[in-house]
Design brief:
36% helix; binds 8-demethyl-8-dimethylamino-flavin-adenine-dinucleotide; binds P-hydroxybenzoic acid; eight-stranded mixed beta sheet; globular; alpha+beta
Length: 395
């Protein structure tokens, strides 16, 4: 069986795995990325759009932010629509100057793949990790299949960056692993339309008909979402039916710009955390350890926050033989993870209509939204979370 060796074996070429590999490269640490999907699939996967300042700063600092700086859009606030009224929350003002950046996860993933390949560094596509062994020994092994052959990657450490459906998390023994979860009784039907966004910033809309969200991926690309039942057959929807429903939900006279639908997908909504993030030589990062419902745009940002700490922890280990940050990795990340889980759960339950919701529940949602736009304190708390919690308490 073919055996390769590296310092850090990374499972998964999503934003978490790719950024970690880049951080390690910048610090002179070797890594190999194993990715089960093919290159074209990974490059085309449409997902997140809104990046916190922390995330953008990290991409720039690690040398993968050049295209992002040229082609992204800065958003200084959000529109909240409810009760058929439009309200603006000036996030920049509420946070003393912080903003978010709209640049597709798909684009930043492509940028990181291009940079890794241009540097001639190992990134194996169609390389599926099947099993991990010897997690508590000096060296651990990832057993994977590549080019029809079974192979082994031997490493000092393994970074499980293989998303929610990956294999890494399953290697933490049940007697030490605790999981916490909540599924929501609705999903997001998301489309990408060839049409200029009718509003230059993101709109979150509460309506009796269900939630709607307008975002974008460029000056001529609208990214729109509608709350739908979990089992919705999204292929039944015509483009016009989608846009008609969208306008009704956003209300306040809003009219979306219509165009050809170039992508459609159904995203389930789930909150999930697995504790701890470490077992022996295995470290989980990103969706492999936790997921949030997409309302509030936190999933990728949280993945990047984990990696920022893990990359630094590996650096201290290899540079100074200091394993203190590796030992505290799980605890440090979990403090942030639970705050972000709370925000995403709160954004979701405040703006979506649950199947058996009462009129009282709806009044509570509307009062909460109204408090956000009428009270400086309410707005401030939302804005602080939306732009991304500070890292100050963490290292
Ligand atoms: P990923 O991106 O899922 O990458 C995991 C990678 O691991 C590979 N893999 C394996 N490779 C080898 N062997 C195996 N056995 C493997 N098993 C899996 C997979 O093929 C994949 O390439 O996880 P990562 O890196 O942790 O990144 C997490 C983010 O992708 C995710 O949190 C966000 O997309 C969530 N999200 C959003 N996050 C934001 O920060 N801002 C947003 O605006 C935002 N919008 C969204 C979102 C997610 C959405 N969906 C589709 C759930 C909007 C939507 C609709
Ligand atoms: C997106 O652009 O895909 C997006 C924007 C805001 C969200 C979630 C997703 O809250």
């Amino acid at each position: 069986m073919k055996k390769i060796k590296t310092q850090v074996g990374i499972i998964g070429a999503g934003p978490a795995g790719l950024l970690l590999a880049q951080m390690l490269y910048n610090r002179g640490i070797e890594s190999v990325i194993l990715e089960s999907r093919d290159r074209a699939y990974v490059r085309a996967r449409l997902r997140a759009g809104v990046q916190e300042q922390n995330t953008v700063d990290t991409f720039i600092k690690e040398g993968v932010g050049e295209k992002l700086q040229k082609n992204s859009m800065v958003h200084k606030g959000i529109y909240l629509h409810f009760n058929n009224e439009k309200h603006y929350l000036n996030v920049e003002e509420l946070t003393g100057g912080k903003v978010v950046t709209v640049y597709g996860q798909q684009q930043v993933t492509c940028d990181m793949i291009d940079i890794r390949e241009a540097n001639g560094l190992p990134l194996l596509f169609e390389a599926k990790a099947n099993k991990i062994t010897d997690l508590r020994e000096k060296n651990s092994q990832i057993h994977f299949t590549h080019e029809g052959e079974k192979k082994v990657l031997e490493c000092d450490f393994i970074a499980g960056c293989d998303g929610f459906h990956g294999i890494s998390r399953k290697h933490i023994p049940k007697k030490i692993q605790q999981t916490f979860q909540r599924t929501f009784p609705y999903a997001w039907f998301g489309i990408l339309a060839e049409a200029p966004p009718a509003c230059h910033e993101v709109i979150y809309a509460h309506s009796d008909r269900g939630f709607a969200l307008q975002s974008m991926r460029g000056p001529n690309l609208s990214r729109l979402y509608l709350q739908v039942p979990n089992n919705e057959d999204i292929n039944q929807w015509t483009a016009d039916a989608f846009f008609d429903e969208f306008d009704k939900r956003v209300g306040a006279g809003y009219q979306v710009n219509r165009g050809e639908l170039i992508n459609r997908g159904l995203a389930p909504m789930k909150s999930f955390v697995s504790e701890p993030l470490r077992y022996g030589n295995l470290f989980l990062s990103g969706d492999a350890a936790h997921i949030v419902p997409p309302t509030g745009a936190k999933g990728m940002n949280l993945a990047i926050a984990d990696v920022k700490i893990l990359g630094e922890a590996f650096n201290r280990y290899y540079k100074d033989q200091d394993d203190d940050l590796l030992n505290r990795y799980s605890e440090i990340c979990l403090r942030r993870i639970w705050k972000v889980e709370r925000f995403s759960w709160w954004c979701t339950t405040t703006t979506h209509i649950a199947p058996r919701q009462t009129k009282f529940d709806t009044k509570m949602q509307l009062a909460t939204l109204s408090y956000l736009v009428d009270s400086k304190v309410g707005g401030h708390s939302f804005a602080e979370n939306y732009v991304g919690l500070s890292f100050r308490e963490q290292f």
